[in-house]
Amino acid sequence: MNKIALLVFISFLLFGCANKSNVRYDALSQSLERGGFSGAIQTIEKEKEDLYGEKSAFLYHFDLGVLFHYNRDFKKSIDHLTKAEQIYEDLYAKSVTNEAAALLTNDNTRPYRARPFELLFLYQVQILNYLAINDLDGANVEVKRAQMAMEALYQKDSEKVNDNGFLQYLTALVYEMNGENDNAAISYYKAVKAYQEYRQKLPTELVDFTSSSLQKNGREDDLRQLNIPNTETPLSQSLEEKGAEIVVVGYAGHSPILGEMRMSGTFVNGEGLNLTYTDGQTGEVKSFTMLAPIIAQSGTATAHIAFSLPEKKVLPFNVYDFSIYLNNEPEIYSESVTDLNDEITRNLKDDWSGTVAKTAARVALRTFAAQKTKKAVETSNPLLNLATSIGTDVASSQLEKADLRVGLFMPNRIHMTRIPVAPGVHDLDIAALDSRGATVSRFTFKQVSVQKGQKLFLFIPAIK
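Given the sequence above, the corresponding C-alpha cells read:
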C-alpha cells in the first residue's frame, strides 16, 4: 500500500503544469499598446508555443480571429475562428485521458474547450465577418451553427445557458437579408425574450424592429406575450422609406480577464467542507460551508487544504459609448446590445459550487496521498523526515493552479446602431466616448457607398 501511495504521488508531480495565462496577458497587452492590433497579432504568431502551447489551441485561434476582425482583415478572422470552432467541436466529446489527468493535478492539464460566453461571442464575430464581406451564404452557415451550439449548451445545463439576445438579433438580420421574414420574426421574438430572461436592458432599436416584424408577419399574439410597453416603429418605417441602412458595430472597452482567488480550510471526507477566502471585488474576508464530496478508501480522513479558483479581474479601459454623425445630420448615440462583463460574472457564478467541490476533492485526494507518501518514506532520522514532510507538502500545494485561461481581446460591451439611409454616398464621423461623454478617439469614414436594399456594416474597435 505504501509503495502504491508513493507511486501515485510521484505521478502527481509528473503531471504538474505551468500556468501561462498571466504571462500571456502581460506579453500581449504590451504588444497591443506598442503596435496596436497588428503588433499583438505578430507577437501571437511569433511566440505561439511559449504563449499558448498545445493545450490552449482554441485560444490561439480565438484570439487571432478576434484581432484580425478588429484589424478589418475579415477573411483571416474567418479562417482562425473556423479553426477554433473545429477545436471546440473535437473537444466537446470528453477525453477520458484528459479528465483523468485533470483529476490528478489541475484543470490546466487538459485542452481548453471555451467557456459559453466565448463560444457565443465567436459566433457573433463570425456572422459579422461574413456580413462585412457580403457573403450571405457564409453568414447563413454560421447562423445554423450558432443555433446548434446554443441548443447544445441549453441541453447540457438548462439552468445555466439559454438564448443569447444579441446572437438571436444577428440571426434575425441574416434572415431578413435572405427574405425569410417569418424566420426573422421568430428570431426577433427570441432575441427580446432572451434579454428579458436575463433582465438586461432592451435595446430601443431591437424593440422597434421586433414590433414591426411581428406585426407584419401576423404574430400579434407573440408581441403581446413580450409585453413591450411601446410598439411604435419609426426606425423600421424610415428604413422602408429610405431603402438601405448602415450598421455600426462598436466594441467598447476591454472585457475582464481571470485572476486567482486563494481559498483555504478543512475537508472532512464525505461530511463537511469549510473554506475561507478574500473577495477580490470588495476585499472582504468570507467563509462558507458545504457538503464535502466522498473520496473512496479514505474513511473519515480530515485534511487542511488550500487552493486557487478563477475570479474576475477587471481591466482599466477608456471607452464606454459611441456617438455617430452621419453627413451633417444630428448626433446619434449608440446602444449596448451585449455586456461581456455581465456574461463573465454569470459564468463564474454558475460554475462556482461545482468548481469548488471538484477542486477541493482533488486537493484533498492529493493531501491524503501525500500523508501516505510521508509514512512510506519515513526513516529513523527526524531531520530527514521533517525535510521530506515539508518537501512533500510544498510539492503537493504547487500542483494546484487555477485555470485562468480566457480570451484576451473581447470587448467589455458591444454596441450596434442601425442607421436608415438613402442609396448613395455618405460620410460618417464616429466618436468613442469615455464615462463622462468626452471624446477618446475618432473614426472617420468618407464617401461610403451604399446600394439600394443593402445593409453595410462598419466596425469600431475601441477596446483599449
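The chain has a mean pLDDT of 86. Try to locate this feature in the C-alpha cell string yourself.
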